[in-house]
Amino acid sequence: MSFTAKINGHNVLMDTKADDGGEDSGPGPKQLMLASLAGCTGIDIVSILNKMKVEFSQFSIDVHAALSNDHPKIYNLVKITYTIKLAEKDKSKMIKAVQLSTEKYCGVYAMFKTFAKMDTEIDYL
Amino acid sequence: MSFTAKINGHNVLMDTKADDGGEDSGPGPKQLMLASLAGCTGIDIVSILNKMKVEFSQFSIDVHAALSNDHPKIYNLVKITYTIKLAEKDKSKMIKAVQLSTEKYCGVYAMFKTFAKMDTEIDYL
Known about the structure:
The structure is a homodimer.
Chain A: E1 3-7, E2 10-14, H1 29-51, E3 56-67, E4 75-86, H2 91-105, H3 107-113, E5 117-124
Parallel strand pairs in A: 4-5
Antiparallel strand pairs in A: 1-2, 3-4
Helix pairs in contact in A: 1-2, 1-3
């Protein structure tokens, strides 16, 4: 039940859990879609903050998502929490960076918006 | 610009290419979404063919996708090619397995259908 995705010279293993006949040798494909979302908006925000000359550290992103009940099960509710450490004066720039990513640049976020209710939150360390 | 996704104990690295300020240490997040699609429908088909007691080998999946021109760039055209080796008598079962995955079971495929024109093809070895 495991598959190795070959993407521009990079290999990504996917598998299912033992309950579903797999060996849990890699993340499930559907969960990988949430990683794709986090990575897309995360890279945007690093890029935007760098352009704004904002110094930051300890940046991480949590994605929580709910699946519909019936087959095919799709994500219908997605919450992204951005956690970051930066100066008080730069908080408004972080808010702007998240807006730019979720409203303009992040294609994965735009695709998710077509099927899921999206929500974002920023936690400052 | 690189992020490591932590998914149930599995790590998946993502990065951008040098042109975009990254180091190409992993696949791009948006490309990872196509891996998610291939893995989802692939695992379905293995599971369905196993239940149908169909013997097969050399199963692989190619995904080609086109992006929209404007930001946010989304996949608007996706073609999945399933390549598989199985007995002539089992070809109709493979067609049925693809139908069941793309119309009923694969949640990632169902999500893609909300924003992209989808197409599938089966190549027999």
